[in-house]
Amino acid sequence: MKHKIITISRQFGSGGRTIGREVAARLGIPCYDHELIEKIAEESGFAKEYIAERGEYASHGSWMASAFSDRDFYGHSNQDTLWSVQTKIITELAEQGPCVIVGRCAAYYQFYTDMKWGAMEQYHIALDSGALGIETCVRILADLYQSETN
């Protein structure tokens, strides 16, 4: 991938959506958050409400639970389908140009990569928006992005 992409994984109440939008606006690049739900719904055929509720935070649970869950004829669960469609759409958007992507697929990180989601050593940068404030987080991310592109 030749474009710089900022991905923001966030916790509830962190202001991650606001930070993502403001960083994108400051850099003059697109931000994808709720827009992804529309694209995923179009491609997957799932209702937007289902994707909003299950597409980002769905749990895979135990092997036994998933073996008897909502699987199609080929053995794919709704979660497998959502993950596949989300990955395809996010990859396509990232290939179009620089952008900020907020959330989406983060809950699947450990399931598909065997890496623990949220483990700080796997992130390039971690910011505590509660301690730093939204504006400081926006400034830090925008400054880092610009210093890497110069």
Walk me through the structure.
The chain has 150 residues and is mostly helical. The protein has one domain: Rossmann fold, CATH 3.40.50.300. Helices cover 53% and strands 7% of the residues. The chain has eight helices and three strands. The protein has a three-stranded parallel β-sheet with strand order 1-3-2, with helices on both faces. The longest helix has 19 residues. About 8% of the residues have low confidence.
- Predict the CATH topology: Rossmann fold
Can you identify the CATH class?
Alpha Beta
Strand portion:
5-15%
The helix count comes to 8
The helix-and-strand class reads mainly alpha
Q: Tell me, what's the shape?
A: globular
Number of E-state strands: 3
CATH architecture: 3-Layer(aba) Sandwich
Instruction: Provide the residue-averaged pLDDT.
Output: 77
Beginning-to-end CA distance, first to last residue: 18 Å
The SSE string, one letter per element, is EHEHHHHEHHH
Q: How many domains make up the coordinates?
A: 1
The helix content, as a percent range, equals: 40-55%
Q: Flag low-confidence runs.
A: 57-68
Main-sheet strand order equals 1-3-2
